[in-house]
């Protein structure tokens, strides 16, 4: 785990083995994603799983909601096992309502999955809830599979909620406060039941997701306070586009800052399913918890900058890094490249200072400044660039950048 001064000491949780990776304990915070294909469409599901893995997902969840989906799981797993980079990624089954039936009926599905996600809010009502829950746990123990008890605000146990509302007669809590308490109690009670039914503490992961930022922070703080189970954190139904990304980043940023969270999932609505994985990587890198790609520092531009030239250079450098990153990692090592810091700055005010702080940086001339760009490497002036008939400042900077990256080996 990469601790830093910004992030509070990581909350202590037990380590849970999920397939080939570990969640909790001292393990790195893992990124999860979920397919949106019809699981019985094996070709499309496998293709999307691979796409998510290629974008950086380290655990992938699929819907298992009927017989055809459950029957398809072994074939999906077998297809992934044909290639090493996909074989090592855990496959999680997401069950609602009928998980006890499907896992009992399709043992090959139960064996192929690396973890079962269970929602205590819709596994059954009254006496059937405990019976159905125990049936799933019996299968989990048989195949030595961990579980995630995933409580959702939108599908909360109604009996528990009603009970807490009745108990609140003289406490003057709002319905929102009661729901938050019910979410926490549902997760904790379910974990206690799972242990009573024979599951080990290091086989249980908890999550408690709602769509309201203050609520999700409060709920996870309570779970972290009263439990040592690893926490899968996220803001459910975050929304789409910039709105969903900002809400998720704010919620996860607060929790991760306080050392809460062992694995994360970004739940945004997007036409590109890989977007949620990219956002998750950006959040972890912004907090300096993990590094996935070189970070580029650039100013927003102002009246002092030659905005078009500076902005064009910034976009060009970012695109170049994306194009070259995989080759750089192969040649010079993932860790060195992922931690690389590059600055592309617009004028003399902050340009030289930020460029010196980066591993390599370029400070462009602002308005009414001499048409020169200064390059710094490891805090020292490396070169002064001027556009010529043969070479643009961008081309000259890229040559210096490539030489610097090559020196990292």
UniProtKB/TrEMBL annotation:
Pfam families: GcpE (PF04551), GcpE_C (PF26540). GO terms for biological process: isopentenyl diphosphate biosynthetic process, methylerythritol 4-phosphate pathway; terpenoid biosynthetic process. Its EC number is 1.17.7.3. It catalyses: (2E)-4-hydroxy-3-methylbut-2-enyl diphosphate + oxidized [flavodoxin] + H2O + 2 H(+) = 2-C-methyl-D-erythritol 2,4-cyclic diphosphate + reduced [flavodoxin]. Binds 1 [4Fe-4S] cluster. The keyword 4Fe-4S applies. [4Fe-4S] cluster binds at residues 299, 302, 347, 354. It comes from the Bacteria. Pathway: Isoprenoid biosynthesis; isopentenyl diphosphate biosynthesis via DXP pathway; isopentenyl diphosphate from 1-deoxy-D-xylulose 5-phosphate: step 5/6. Residues 296-402 form the IspG C-terminal domain. GO terms for molecular function: 4 iron, 4 sulfur cluster binding; 4-hydroxy-3-methylbut-2-en-1-yl diphosphate synthase activity (ferredoxin); 4-hydroxy-3-methylbut-2-enyl-diphosphate synthase activity (flavodoxin); iron ion binding. Keywords: 4Fe-4S, Iron, Iron-sulfur, Isoprene biosynthesis, Metal-binding, Oxidoreductase. Its cofactor is [4Fe-4S] cluster. Residues 13-280 form the IspG TIM-barrel domain. Belongs to the IspG family. PANTHER family: 4-HYDROXY-3-METHYLBUT-2-EN-1-YL DIPHOSPHATE SYNTHASE, 4-HYDROXY-3-METHYLBUT-2-EN-1-YL DIPHOSPHATE SYNTHASE (FERREDOXIN), CHLOROPLASTIC. Converts 2C-methyl-D-erythritol 2,4-cyclodiphosphate (ME-2,4cPP) into 1-hydroxy-2-methyl-2-(E)-butenyl 4-diphosphate. This is 4-hydroxy-3-methylbut-2-en-1-yl diphosphate synthase (flavodoxin). It comes from Candidatus Fokinia solitaria. The lineage of its organism: Bacteria, Pseudomonadati, Pseudomonadota, Alphaproteobacteria, Rickettsiales. The gene is ispG.
């Amino acid at each position: 785990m990469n601790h830093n001064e910004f992030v509070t000491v990581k909350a202590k949780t037990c380590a849970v083995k999920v397939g080939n990776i570990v969640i909790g304990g001292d393990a790195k915070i893992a990124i999860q994603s979920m397919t949106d294909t019809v699981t019985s469409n094996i070709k499309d599901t496998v293709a999307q799983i691979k796409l998510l893995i290629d974008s950086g997902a380290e655990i992938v969840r699929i819907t298992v909601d009927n017989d055809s989906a459950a029957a398809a799981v072994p074939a999906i797993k077998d297809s992934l096992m044909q290639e090493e980079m996909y074989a090592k990624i855990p496959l999680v089954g997401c069950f609602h309502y009928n998980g006890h039936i499907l896992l009992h009926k399709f043992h090959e599905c139960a064996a192929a999955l690396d973890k079962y996600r269970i929602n205590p809010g819709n596994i059954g009502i009254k006496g059937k809830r405990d019976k159905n829950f125990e049936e799933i746990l019996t299968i989990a123990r048989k195949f030595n599979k961990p579980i995630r008890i995933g409580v959702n605000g939108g599908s909360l146990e109604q009996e528990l909620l009603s009970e807490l509302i009745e108990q609140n007669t003289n406490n003057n809590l709002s319905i929102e406060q009661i729901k938050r308490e019910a979410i926490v109690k549902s997760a904790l009670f379910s974990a206690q039941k799972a242990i009573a039914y024979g599951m080990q503490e290091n086989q249980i992961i908890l999550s408690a997701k709602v769509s309201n930022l203050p609520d999700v922070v409060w709920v996870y703080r309570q779970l972290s306070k009263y439990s040592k189970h690893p926490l899968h954190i996220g803001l459910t139904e975050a929304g789409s586009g910039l709105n969903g990304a900002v809400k998720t980043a704010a919620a996860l940023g607060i929790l991760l800052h306080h050392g809460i969270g062992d694995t994360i999932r970004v739940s945004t609505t997007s036409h590109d399913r890989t977007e949620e994985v990219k956002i998750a990587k950006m959040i972890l890198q912004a907090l300096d918890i993990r590094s996935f790609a070189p970070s580029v520092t650039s100013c927003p531009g102002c009246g002092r900058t030659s905005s078009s030239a500076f902005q064009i250079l910034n976009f060009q450098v970012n695109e170049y890094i994306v194009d070259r990153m995989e080759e750089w990692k192969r040649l010079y090592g993932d860790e060195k490249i992922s931690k690389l810091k590059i600055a592309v700055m617009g004028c003399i005010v902050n340009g030289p200072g930020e460029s010196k702080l980066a591993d390599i940086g370029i400070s462009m001339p602002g308005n009414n400044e001499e048409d020169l760009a200064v390059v710094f490497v490891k805090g020292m002036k490396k070169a002064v660039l001027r556009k010529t008939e043969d070479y643009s400042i961008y081309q000259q900077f890229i040559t210096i950048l490539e030489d610097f990256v090559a020196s990292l080996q």
